[in-house]
Structure prediction request, 339 residues.
Amino acid sequence: MPRRKPSCSLNLHQRQRIRASRQQFLHIPDDSPAQNGLVLANYGFNSEIENDSGERFRCTVRETVDGTPAAGDQVIWRQGNTKQGVIENILPRRSELRRPASQGRLQTVAANIDRIMVIFSPERFLMTLADRYLVASAVAGIDVAIIINKADLLQGNEFRAYRKEIKRDLKLYRRMGYLAKLVSAHNGKGMKWLTQQLTDQTTLMTGQSGVGKSSLIRYWITDEEIRIGQLSTLGRGRQTTSASRLYHLPIGGNIIDSAGIRALALQGIAANRVADYFRDIAQYASKCRFDDCRHDAEPDCAVQAAITQGKVDSRRLFSLHSIVDSLAVGGDGMLLLQD
Ligand SMILES: Nc1nc2c(ncn2[C@@H]2O[C@H](COP(=O)(O)OP(=O)(O)OP(=O)(O)O)[C@@H](O)[C@H]2O)c(=O)[nH]1
Ligand SMILES: [Mg+2]
Ligand SMILES: [Zn+2]
Prediction:
């Protein structure tokens, strides 16, 4: 059997045709009322949604709907004769994190999020990568935290120096006002603290593949609940998460697991405005002699002066320059997250 084209490579017209054809087999009775729903996950042309009583339904999307539902979306939908239905409207999002898909389209990773937690593991922690997530979250107007998981791997004398270095880096971010912490899904370190940060909020867990996002989520969500989610999105036997999925937290609030993301969208940010999103640099950047200062070798650059005086870590300026350069090269507001 030929493999179906991945949904992200289809154009709008093709998507509408497929959506329309899927609904031919779904009978929605005329008296089925419009209801509110919460999107738990979206996969291809289907979304799994939950109604106000917590019942779950598989929905197609009406071809007239603009855009694709994402985990965390509030929608208006109608139930069919079985546990199926059709989404008729995606309600306005209070926030969203987007990534570039094909043909210049943007795909929403998750919607209506209060905080993004960027998860790293110690062996793959890079400030330049963390900074990319911080800028993308700030542009999206969403609070962000930096979490380094697998603290247990840093035990022992041989890792002492590296452990100190990681802790110093996290402190640098805390001084800028970010939540930043070393935790371990395996030995429980920092997990009480992490739980407190999640209560009554919708949090998106993101980060490179294999850093332990799903393992952290298992601290709050039962295996049974995760298994149900995996059956509907993945099929059996795969470890890697393939789509964003929302879970309700027993402590109140929601957590959204996501798959490793390769790039984020930084739509509409001019290269010379990126410094505004660097909390430690912005205050100095506004004091440079030239408005369009690149903070490179220009005279009277307040950012360079702050670095010389030890007020700004030079690695942050390196990060800023690398983001500006990649925006200039791509020119499409796409921020790569590969390490
Ligand atoms: N030592 C150690 N290993 C961990 C910890 N947390 C997760 N792991 C391991 O890291 C591997 C990847 O974990 P996952 O939770 O699947 O990672 P993920 O971030 O969800 O990966 P994707 O779904 O592919 O994006 C597994 O083998 C876990 O057992 C931890 O705190 N300490
Ligand atoms: Mg996962
Ligand atoms: Zn400057």
